[in-house]
TrEMBL record:
The keyword DNA-binding does not apply. Coiled coil: none annotated. Belongs to the TacA antitoxin family. This is DUF1778 domain-containing protein. The keyword Signal does not apply. Pfam families: TacA1. It comes from the Bacteria. Keywords: Toxin-antitoxin system. One of its GO terms (biological process) is regulation of DNA-templated transcription. InterPro entries: Ribbon_hlx_hlx, TacA_1-like.
């Protein structure tokens, strides 16, 4: 079993009551409810920021530009370096 860690949050009364009502309606504790929400939502958010979505036309243009034998500009080299650092 993994270690249990604590997260403390501050929220307004309306939000607190909302999460309490929703967790009760779901038949679970506030902790279980919030944990389920985080585990469901966080991977989607992380996927969105880690993905690049292109239309077919954009992809075709990208492949065309990449296929050219022109020397890479310093700006493109710097952008590629930053993407490498970020793990793309």
């Amino acid at each position: 079993m993994s270690a249990v860690n604590r997260i403390d949050i501050r929220t307004d009364l309306e939000t607190k009551q909302l999460v309490e009502r929703a967790s009760a309606a779901s038949g679970c504790t506030v902790t279980q409810y919030l944990t389920r929400l985080i585990r469901t939502d966080a991977p989607k958010i992380l996927e969105e920021v880690a993905s690049i979505r292109l239309t077919n036309e954009q992809f075709d243009h990208f492949i065309d530009v990449c296929s050219r034998e022109e020397p890479l500009s310093d700006k493109i080299k710097e952008t590629a370096r930053k993407l490498d650092i970020e793990g793309f």
